[in-house]
Design goal:
about 190 residues, alpha/beta, Nucleotidyltransferase, domain 5, 5-stranded mixed β-sheet, 7 helices, 5 strands, globular
């Protein structure tokens, strides 16, 4: 008999943080939950971080994930936005560490590639592929793209667990940047 595994996916954000919970039994997958932590009404950045910690801890306590798959921050031109996003990701990671949940980080391009076959897929394409793969109904798809991006991170991790590492894979965002210097702006 194959053991069940629960994977929590997180798409970090400072206004909306997406989460998705995936149940895995052998090669069968099922979306258990997806949603967002809405932080729009909070103006204090530090209070947002505290709220993220509390909500992620609550999600972990509710679903008891075996592993966390989190999207790595995307390097953009706005350093302040990147710093805020990194803080939000760090707080979510701290909640997982506090609950002894192993963490796996995936670059946005790797997640898109795992689901759609192309690293340049749109959020709509990722959501559409998840809907087909996991047989999600329209009600579930009315969530924000942050929620489907989080579920995509969890599904990407499931695919990584199912396949042996290839030499073309990226082990981290730094590994991706080193192998794709012509695509990464400093």
């Amino acid at each position: 008999m194959k053991a069940e595994k629960i994977i929590l996916g997180i798409d970090p954000g400072t206004n909306l943080m997406g989460y998705g919970v995936l149940r895995v039994l052998g090669q069968k997958t099922e979306a258990v939950a997806l949603g967002v932590i809405d932080l729009h009404k909070m103006s204090d950045g530090y209070l947002k971080l505290g709220h993220i910690y509390e909500r992620v801890s609550g999600i972990i306590e509710s679903y008891l994930p075996d592993e966390l798959a989190i999207e790595a921050p995307f390097f953009g031109k706005n350093v302040q936005s990147m710093l805020k996003l990194g803080r939000a990701q760090g707080v979510a990671i701290a909640a997982a560490i506090q609950h002894d949940v192993p963490i796996h980080e995936y670059a946005p391009m790797k997640i898109k590639m795992a689901l759609t076959g192309t690293g340049s897929a749109s959020k709509e394409q990722v959501a559409g592929m998840l809907q087909r793969i996991l047989h999600l109904d329209e009600e579930q798809m009315r969530q924000h793209f942050d929620a489907t991006d989080a579920l995509a991170a969890a599904y990407c991790h499931f695919m990584q667990m199912s396949r042996p590492q290839t030499s073309a894979g990226y082990r981290s965002w730094k590994d991706f940047a080193i192998k794709n210097k012509n695509r990464v702006k400093e």
